[in-house]
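Researcher: Next entry in the queue.
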Amino acid sequence: MYTDFNRMGGDLEPMDTDSKPRQIYEDIRSAAGSAASDIVAWRREFHQFPELAYEENVTASRITAALDAMPGIEVVRGLGAPTSVIGLLRGDIEAPSLVLRADMDALAIEEETGLPFSSGFPGVMHACGHDCHMASLLGAARILSERADMLKRPVVFLFQPAEEGRGGARKILQGGFLERFNVGEVLGLHFWPQMPFGQMATRPGILTAISDRIHVEISGSTAHAASPHLGVDATLVAAHILITLQSLISRELDPQATAVISFGRMEAGDAYNIVPGKAHLWGTLRTFDEQCREFLQKRLEEMIPLTARAHKAMASVEYTRNYPPVVNDPELTGRVFEKAADFFEEKDQVLRLERPLLAGEDFAFYSLRIPSCFMLFGTGSEVGLHHPCYDVPEDLLPAAAAWEACLALDL
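Model: Structure for this entry, 411 residues:
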């Protein structure tokens, strides 16, 4: 999930339901347990060989090999993006298909987990659980391929590249995905460290925020560090811009509105004793409200150049409207909650989010086009997403695979 902070809001309220578990779910759980060693092996391989957006070539080949070994699954590669992988099960059924989606790409983070299967690529890591999403979906695909005669509609296993800010979902849709596979509904699952271990949560309506990108380029003039008055320090200007922009949230935005502006990357200078003449800032804006987005974008584009000019520099702003909010279809989400009441053994394992999250997720592009539901699966981890020590407990993977398989069979 594309996010720049470790903890996100969202009160959790237990679902009140007395539905009884179904026999098919016990069968699926047993099958997931039998496949656990392979699911974990897939996860470790994905984790050890992470790849950035649109570079998931090794990952795509491994997914293809796994799907090819499963009876009845037709594999399609490269639709919409060269590294996408799609598996189709029971394409002979004339009915709208159900899509189960997993994201593939890793992050530009140096891993610090100390795991024996840590990333083999310096500066690249699966710090958002995408390795586990893929492994769980492969587990669901295996379970369903062994029970294909029980399916009432086609099931599509979508392994999507470039979720982390690069809009892979948009590319998939532009490639004609919905039409080619006669898509009726789309489901997505994300492991979530801020929730208790093994709990599933979602909500109807808006689930995630608008997620935009900001790039600021500052131009000053270089000088020797001993004579800063002879130049214009781009880092100092950047600091003033960073501080000034926070006043938009604290003093210009309605206190009852929700928005955040965060900058996670800065580049400036080449030597410790030279005042840099150039600086770059990269950040993100998150909000739920379109009018709030309009207002903040306008003020960002006004204030940044003016702040730079006040310090004898120049600055330009590149504001990219990146991800819309994920909007869960109320009817589909209601059915997901009904099935969750059967699948999960305890009432407090199924939770309804009271408020949406300020996370960004390109699953949003599917939700704008087709009835969709995005779900969170709690890991109970102390370390948050996009952290160099982030890890997902592996004993959760078979449970997630079983849950996805049950939804495909019974939703």
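Model: Residues 2-21 have pLDDT under 50 and may be disordered.
Researcher: Noted, moving on.
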